[in-house]
Amino acid sequence: MQRRHIIQWGAASLAAPAFMAQAQSFPSKPIKLVIAFPAGGPTDITMRSLADNASKILGQPVIVENKPGAGGTLPAQALQTAQPDGYTVAQIPLGVFRLPYTTKINWDPVKDISYVLNVTGYAFGLVVPADSPFKTWADFVAWAKANPGKLSYGSTGTMTSPHLTMELIAQQLGLELLHVPYKGSADLMQSILGGQIMAAADSTGFAPQVEAGKLRVLNTWGAERLAKFPDAPTLKELGLDLVQNSPFGIGAPKGTPEAVVKRLHDAFKQAMEQESYRTALGRYDMVPMYMSTAAYQKFAQDTFTREKALVEKLGLAKPQ
Fold first, then answer.
1. What distances in angstroms separate CA 293 from CA 49, 147, 155, 252, 281, one per listed residue?
2. Is the predicted pLDDT of residue 41 greater than 90, yes or no?
3. Residue 103: its pLDDT value, please?
4. Higher pLDDT, 139 or 306
């Protein structure tokens, strides 16, 4: 018995230095950061800034790969088949926590991702073309009530936060809207500017088009008005008890060594604190929204529970 314990202790002693050496040498090659939305949109632009900063800190390139579609859940799904070595990490949008309630999957968004840190959250709103007859939110509501099912709005995908928030608004006001999903902000903006849809629910990737006089903001979805659009009322000011800011961060495959997760956490946290990242976020009224590894893991669990109630309230849950 004593001999077996000695052998086990010896094996563990030999494994520990090897593990530590692996963590200390990380990273020794480029890291891939998979994001959930197309190139050219606010997520892509801000995450590339963060990746550039992290590359300098880690001493290896952090290469952004765009994987849009499926309501922003494809990067999290990609983690399920990636090696748990820290060389593949992914953006985790809020839609990931709704996935099991709407789609049959064989993995758990809380247990099967190593949460690294939260980095920011979206600011959202609803926009219409500058020449739209909807000058105010009241105009939008009145037309929708008079024309059930005919007022078309686009979002960044089915079951994303813009889609579900608009469905909650419609439910509260008794509206029947026509939802048109897109893969991301860049596609959505092309469509509304081209006249294919009447309105767009999105993160503030629409800011440059508003500032150019091509779009008008009817409302924003934060707790307070956005500095960039001081004339646009919040949903709360319009009598709707809703606030949506949709935090997102970075995850790694389940089983990634704690020391590697810590190295990633420390590098991306330092990258968040640099002025170039804050400036990139500021273009879209976004701000750094840090959560530590432990806090982000708890957020994942709490959000998973909360989103179940939201999906069920909207009647969008699929039988399992």
1. 21, 48, 30, 11, 22
2. no
3. 87
4. 139
107: left (phi over 0), alpha (psi -120 to 50) or beta: beta
- pLDDT score for 9: 53
Contact 159, 95 (CB under 8 A): yes
Residues in CB range of 182: below 8 A, 6 or more apart: 154, 155, 156, 157, 188, 191
Q: How far is residue 291's CA from residue 302's CA, in Å, rounded to a whole number?
A: 14
User: Within 10 A of 107 (CB to CB), how many other CB atoms are there?
Assistant: 15
Q: Among all chains, which residue has been given the structure tokens 């020449």?
A: 131
Alpha carbons 225 and 234: distance in angstroms, whole number: 6
Q: In terms of Cα–Cα distance, which of 70, 72, 61, 18 is closest to 251? A: 72
Q: Which helix (H) or strand (E) holds 226?
A: none
* Residue 214 CA neighbour count, 13 Å, CB half: 13
Amino acid present at 134: F
The average confidence (pLDDT) of the chain is 92
With b for 16 or more beta-carbon neighbours within 10 A and e for fewer, the 224-237 pattern comes to: eebebbeebbbbee
Q: Which of 201, 287, 200 is nearest to 248 (CA)?
A: 287
In terms of Cβ atoms closer than 10 Å to its own Cβ (0-12, 13-18, 19+), residue 24 is exposed
Confidence of residue 92 (pLDDT cuts 50, 70, 90): very high
H or E segment to which residue 40 belongs? none
* Cis peptide preceding 27, ω within 30 of 0: yes
Distance CA 312, CA 320 (A): 13
Quote the pTM value. Answer: 0.83
> Which pLDDT does position 20 carry in this prediction?
54
